[in-house]
């Protein structure tokens, strides 16, 4: 009987200790705030590795890829960042077919434009910036909620 109780206690303690993909995403954000970038990358990777396909959490992968892409941009891994932003866009397009991209998706296009701009792909950066503008960036800048990116006017934007 003592062994059964011990085994059950061990099983319950292990199952209560499991973390979701969202838990790792939140940890990664806190790591970034504390400038622990290696731990942040590790937690973004864990979030992406355990978030299941074909569930509501699959849609959350857009945020996980976007966060990791921003971190990769910060670390100078522009091609890796662009890949993650591509994946974030793909996740939303496959999760919500026949639907206009969400308002938050403008952030993914904005972030990808920054990575492309920093990698030297000015044309690609301007394309993504124009997409971000169409999806809500202009309104955010106009309302004073966001500062215009450095290449905003260079891409022919800002005058409506």
Task: Record keyword descriptors for this entry.
160 residues, mainly alpha, Serine Threonine Protein Phosphatase 5, Tetratricopeptide repeat, 7 helices, globular
Description:
- With about 160 residues, this protein is mainly α.
- It has a single domain (about 20-140), classed as Serine Threonine Protein Phosphatase 5, Tetratricopeptide repeat, CATH 1.25.40.10.
- It contains seven helices and no strands.
- It has helices spanning about 1-15, 20-35, 35-50, 55-75, 80-95, 105-120, 120-140.
- Helix 5 (about 80-95) packs antiparallel against helix 6 and helix 6 packs across helix 7.
- It starts with a helix and ends in an 18-residue tail after the last helix.
User: Are there runs of 5+ residues with pLDDT below 50, and where?
Assistant: 5-16
> How would you spell out the order of helices and strands?
HHHHHHH
Number of spatially distinct domains: 1
Calculate Rg over CA atoms. Answer: 19 Å
Number of E-state strands: 0
Tell me the CATH architecture: Alpha Horseshoe
User: In CATH, what is the homologous superfamily?
Assistant: Tetratricopeptide repeat domain
Write down the CATH class.
Mainly Alpha
Structural class, from secondary structure content? mainly alpha
What profile does the largest beta sheet have? none
Q: Based on CA inertia axes, which overall geometry fits?
A: globular
- Overall average pLDDT: 80
What layout of secondary structure does this protein have?
Blueprint: H1 2-16, H2 21-33, H3 37-50, H4 56-75, H5 78-95, H6 105-119, H7 122-142
